[in-house]
User: Fold this.
Amino acid sequence: MATIVVIGESGQLAQSLRGLPWPPGFALSFHGRRSFQAGFDAELVGRLLQAEAAHAVLNAAAYTAVDRAESEPQAASALNAHLPRVLAAACGALDLPLVHISTDYVFDGRKGAPYVETDVPNPLSVYGRTKLEGDRNLDLSGLRWWAILRASWVVSEIGETFIVKVLRRARAGEALRIVDDQHGCPTAASELARAMQAVALRLLDRDHAARGLFNYCGASEMSWHGLAEKTLLTAEKIGLARPPLQAIKTAELNAPAQRPAYSVLSCARIAQACGLTTTQIEDDLDRMVRSILAR
Ligand SMILES: NC(=O)c1ccc[n+]([C@@H]2O[C@H](COP(=O)([O-])OP(=O)(O)OC[C@H]3O[C@@H](n4cnc5c(N)ncnc54)[C@H](OP(=O)(O)O)[C@@H]3O)[C@@H](O)[C@H]2O)c1
Assistant:
């Protein structure tokens, strides 16, 4: 049995990895907060990987509270920058493949065209800066078999995601005010998990083409307001009355963290290197909305 160690347990990506069918002979072992109460010590992580007889590591853990990170930079840095360095060192010592996830928030959003992997990052927030540091730590680690999937706007029916929050408000009959001046590509967590799995299996086969940094996001570009509208339309077809939805500007929110206004990612590299295509969020919305409304 080949054990894949997943860092993270109850998060939307970790849960989506759990929900995937894996080829025969693979078993997943999840390690979230409970396994790391003493912090992310290189020795501890190394012992954990040895005890699990790990064959590969998938890092689905991160500090993802973008606004809170502005006032908790050390906590964000521990998870987003330090943990990838520790994982890379532990995987390097055991020659294990490591797949890690980055974010579109490493960019400032001023390019005006889809970002490619070689574009120079310029994060606007603590979250973006700490995630970028994590990417660099992995790149500089000397680890042979690593890949980073740079994702954007990850959504699912799991946890406190945008779609879950929109539907909660809609169910309560509350009016919604959502920004229409941030544009990106919503990515279904299940699709990101599928891509992570495909890349991990290639790295386990020592496929050189699967090494390095890849963008991976959904194929439809929209604003958060656009995503809310699609979510509410989907819910309406299932019988949920549509609440009023108003488009507002980012500046009106006064959020602690600045976000890129345009963070569409080009996924050409992963398509060419690994044959991985991305799907449109519309393809997954019906399933997500039904699952949320069934609760
Ligand atoms: N969400 C987005 O919109 C978005 C966009 C672009 C990229 N990403 C990236 O996608 C990846 C997955 O994000 P997600 O949306 O699945 O995140 P999430 O739902 O917020 O889950 C975060 C995960 O991190 C783990 N974690 C948090 N603190 C921890 C700690 N101290 N020790 C160990 N584990 C800890 C959690 O473990 P437990 O299971 O124990 O709680 C959980 O599994 C991350 O790298 C994120 O940066 C996310």
Summary: The chain has a mean pLDDT of 97. The chain has one domain: 2-223+251-293. The domain at 2-223+251-293 is CATH 3.40.50.720 (Rossmann fold).
